[in-house]
Amino acid sequence: MNRLREHIEAITPLTDEEFEYIKTFFTIKKVRKNQFLIHEGDEVKYEFLTLDGIYKVFYIDENGKEHILQFAKKNWWMTDYIGFFKQQNATMFVECLKDGEVVSLTLQGREKLASELHKMDHFFRVKLTNGYIALQQRIILLLSSTPQQRYEDFVRLYPDLISEIPKKYVAEYLGVSRETLSRLYSNNK
């Protein structure tokens, strides 16, 4: 739980008493490669903070095509946010790509922490704001850039992920074919 505390304290300091209370809302879970934390149709009970490992958040369209919305690595939050906040069944999947560990938090726990501790309300607001900004930047990039620009942006933002994630997933995330990704990769060596 020390990593959870470090993660929170990167935004707001905590007393030992505050953290002792906060950690009662979180559950640690080990996750294996290819294990799903959320499967389409599941009740979305948790939001997850990644302590270790790599995960992908994706959905499958009516034609069976996979669309990756997010990769998550250490200190990233993930879930099916529509299902989580609206308390609906999942329309997305969260799958582990590399063995790891997460901590989970329920919506009720999140709401209680935010209402009882101003520091946690501030923490969650900062995290949501940063996530919203990243999502908006990703949408703009997908709508207005070339495959080359998307690839360069991915490498700049996530230099360690390019070597740790199968190329087919990087291609899906960037919205390009595997062949296009191979050309982009070769051109940038």
From TrEMBL:
> Residues in domain Cyclic nucleotide-binding?
29-112
The cross-references to CDD domains, in alphabetical order and at most eight, read: CAP_ED (cd00038)
Q: Name one Pfam family in it.
A: cNMP_binding
Q: Do you know which InterPro entries this protein is assigned to?
A: cNMP-bd_dom (IPR000595), cNMP-bd_dom_sf (IPR018490), RmlC-like_jellyroll (IPR014710)
Protein name, per record: Cyclic nucleotide-binding domain-containing protein
Source organism of this protein record? Chryseobacterium ginsengisoli
Lineage of the species this protein comes from:
Bacteria, Pseudomonadati, Bacteroidota, Flavobacteriia, Flavobacteriales
